[in-house]
Amino acid sequence: xxxxxxxxxxxxxxxxxxxxxxxxxxxxxxxxxxxxxxxxxxxxxxxxxxxxxxxxxxxxxxxxxxxxxxxxxxxxxxxxxxxxxxxxxxxxxxxxxxxxxxxxxxxxxxxxxxxxxxxxxxxxxxxxxxxxxxxxxxxxxxxxxxxxxxxxxxxxxxxxxxxxxxxxxxxxxxxxxxxxxxxxxxxxxxxxxxxxxxxxxxxxxxxxxxxxxxxxxxxxxxxxxxxxxxxxxxxxxxxxxxxxxxxxxxxxxxxxxxxxxxxxxxxxxxxxxxxxxxxxxxxxxxxxxxxxxxxxxxxxxxxxxxxxxxxxxxxxxxxxxxxxxxxxxxxxxxxxxxxxxxxxxxxxx
Length: 349
Ligand SMILES: *Cc1c(COP(=O)(O)O)cnc(C)c1O
Hints:
Layout: H1 3-7, H2 11-21, E1 29-32, H3 35-43, E2 49-52, H4 61-67, E3 70-73, H5 76-89, E4 93-100, E5 108-109, H6 113-124, E6 128-134, H7 146-161, E7 173-177, H8 179-184, E8 192-193, E9 216-226, E10 231-232, E11 238-239, E12 244-249, E13 267-270, E14 273-278, E15 286-289, E16 301-308, E17 311-313, H9 315-321, H10 326-331
Parallel strand pairs: 1-2, 2-3, 3-4, 4-5, 4-6, 6-7, 7-8
Antiparallel strand pairs: 9-12, 9-16, 10-11, 12-15, 13-14, 14-15, 16-17
Helix pairs in contact: 4-5, 5-6
């Protein structure tokens, strides 16, 4: 899954890296959420399968057909619309059929697969290729896997109720597992898995301590010595109680550093030491109190997520402080942040 700019990591680089890791064929398919993401992936030179997993507004079907993506379809109107796009394009277009087993946001209802399954085949006719069938889990990262096992049971029951595939037609693939289900239940014996967060260093469950993938860093742009009573940031919510030394970092919520981190005990690492973020985070800057950290200088690199010497701030820590999940922190990293890739595949700088 490389949707949302590969969870904020930068889709073109991630797609290239995944193709290399999985060479020579690459992944079975790349998963995205929107047609525009499929187009962006095509522009990187990927000629293989792309599946758009979120429901697509019917107005975008012609665009989807031109981009050569497969759509995930959730109701008969969508099957009709996609078949119409296929007729117009003069091509057989692929689709993956979503079965709703409890996620509730999209998919054909699992209880009535015997009814709609026949209808889907009839409408698809020879215009569409029913390439795969899938469901999505709502709680595979929770300590208790019983709800996920129940969803799996519903999915299998729905599969059993579908009309038997026509002889001579390529077998449809099945896929149910996000990262958590892929790691904790081995993908539930399907043909494919759909890992996202596990590729990007986010935790997939209570006992998972993933290797970090991304660090978030910014330079010290200014240093100032302030007198007691000096205030900082919008709303002047922080006041110096003593002579203090403040460092202004060249990063703000306009880069994806969550504004909620300010009042939630957010920290940065400088010279291997944790220093508190003070006052409200602005769009473009954040200020930290570096009083007593003698070595701090303008131009030094502060770490907002990642490691500095022995000290570390994990993406999970940032997410917890902000009352959200690692997914949102990563996907919230903005285009203004330069992405610096490390390792042998990194583009020249
Ligand atoms: C985003 C997404 C995934 C990946 O989920 P992770 O929890 O990030 O592994 C899998 N399947 C679908 C349909 C998705 O939208």
